[in-house]
Amino acid sequence: MAKVEVTAEAQRQFYDLPASIQKRVEKVFVRLENWPVVSGVKSLSGNLAGHYRIRTGDYRVQYHVIRGGTVEIVVVEKVGHRDGFYED
User: Fold this and answer.
1) CA separation (Å) from 77 to 11, 70?
2) Alpha-carbon dihedral of residues 7, 13, 14, 18, nearest 10 degrees?
3) Would you state the pLDDT for residue 88?
4) Could you report the per-residue pLDDT of 13-36, keeping only the tens digit for each?
5) Which segments within the chain are labelled E, that is strand?
6) Range 45-74 average pLDDT
7) Burial of residue 43, with CB atoms counted within 10 A of its CB: 0-12 exposed, 13-18 middle, 19 or more buried
8) Long-range contact list for 47-55, CB < 8 A, 24+ apart?
9) What CA–CA distances, in Å, run from 39 to 3, 53, 58, 75?
10) Which residues pair with 75 in a beta bridge?
11) Cis peptide preceding 18, ω within 30 of 0
């Protein structure tokens, strides 16, 4: 089991989503608590190497994992629509 933390920026992005999408993204957050046994995860490459993404429909959740001690921490850093999601 992992602990899921959401950055302030990702929280802002989450609250900007429509309510129906927020419910789907919340389910993704719950799934991430089972890290590393989470289906549908893709590791990112290039300047995002070491980060991962999981999708729900046309929306993406980007995160990285801090490994240490007895608990892994999944840090959600970005939430949004796939259009332009990786352009930062």
Assistant:
1) 9, 22
2) 180
3) 67
4) 999 999 999 999 999 999 999 999
5) 2-6, 42-43, 51-56, 59-66, 72-81
6) 94
7) exposed
8) 48/86, 51/77, 54/28, 55/82
9) 17, 11, 17, 17
10) 5, 64
11) no
